[in-house]
Amino acid sequence: MNNSECNILIVEDDAPIRKLMSTTLKVNGYSYKAVSSGIEAERELTAYKPDVLLLDLGLPDMDGVEIIKTLREWSELPIIVVSARSEDDDKITALDAGADDYLTKPFSVNELLARIRVAQRRLVTAERKNEPEPIFVNGDLKIDYAAGTAYVEGNELQLTPMEYKLLCLMAKNVGKVLTHTFITDHIWGNSLESDVATLRVFMVSLRKKIEKNPSNPQYIQTHIGIGYRMNRL
Ligand code: CA
């Protein structure tokens, strides 16, 4: 998708930040629309039909999380939430509600553009979603879902059922930040094992098997205090 074909809706009540985002998108050839309230956001989500949503969580008339919840009832639109460092809990709530990614204020122009590129790649992945995709390929990593096997550089990985489940969950949500709660709910349901410490142990053992350098992982990135994301290589 070309930048000019990508319509981005900016929802931000802080005028200088809204201006920074608008200018950055304009300079980089994106199509965009900028609004400053939740009411306007809800209107433009149906009228403007954006491809990506940049959403401030602290809006004057509405909680950004409410917008995400309503939107997720009918749309898979990539959502990047924008929040202050002091709003870490809100960020996690937003990701749990279905946001894809986040930016912490203050952020650089390069960070903003990088997040948008991830969202654009997710759009391409989502377009392919309806076609049967029995084989997942990302860099040197390959998962054969039908066979239940995974490979790195053509070598079959010896994964435990739990590691395989974790790898598949990350792969199916490639490009998206998954919170600890999202992952543990999907892997363990509500069982006793479902805590962050256990998840961390499984992540360490999975990384040893898939990463060239587990202390500097390429595939699965840690978001401290929040969760993990599989990068699209
Ligand atoms: Ca705000």
Overview in brief:
The chain is α/β, with parallel strands linked by helices and 233 residues long.
Radius of gyration: 18 Å
Question: What is the count of structural domains?
Answer: 2
Question: What's the shape?
Answer: globular
H/E topology pattern: EHEHEHEHEHEEEEHEHHEE
Low-confidence stretches: none
Structural class: alpha/beta
- The total of helices stands at 8
The residue-averaged pLDDT reads: 92
Number of strands: 12
CATH superfamily of the largest domain: Response regulator
Report the top-level CATH class of the largest domain.
Answer: Alpha Beta
CATH topology of the largest domain: Rossmann fold
Helix content: 40-55%
CATH architecture of the largest domain: 3-Layer(aba) Sandwich
* Percentage of residues in DSSP E strands: 15-25%
Bound molecules: calcium ion
End-to-end separation: 17 Å
Could you explain how this protein is built, in words?
The protein is α/β, with parallel strands linked by helices and 233 residues long. It folds into 2 domains: 3-130, Rossmann fold, CATH 3.40.50; 135-230, Arc Repressor Mutant, subunit A, CATH 1.10.10. Helices cover 42% and strands 22% of the residues. The protein contains 8 helices and 12 strands. The strands form 3 sheets. The chain has a 5-stranded parallel β-sheet, sandwiched between helices. The chain has a 4-stranded antiparallel β-sheet with strand order 6-7-8-9, covered by helices on one side. Helix 3 (64-72) links the parallel strand 3 and strand 4. Helix 6 crosses helix 8. The longest helix is centred in the middle third of the chain and has 20 residues, at 109-128. The mean pLDDT is 92. Bound molecules: calcium ion (CA). Residues 13-14, 56, 58-59 line the site of calcium ion.
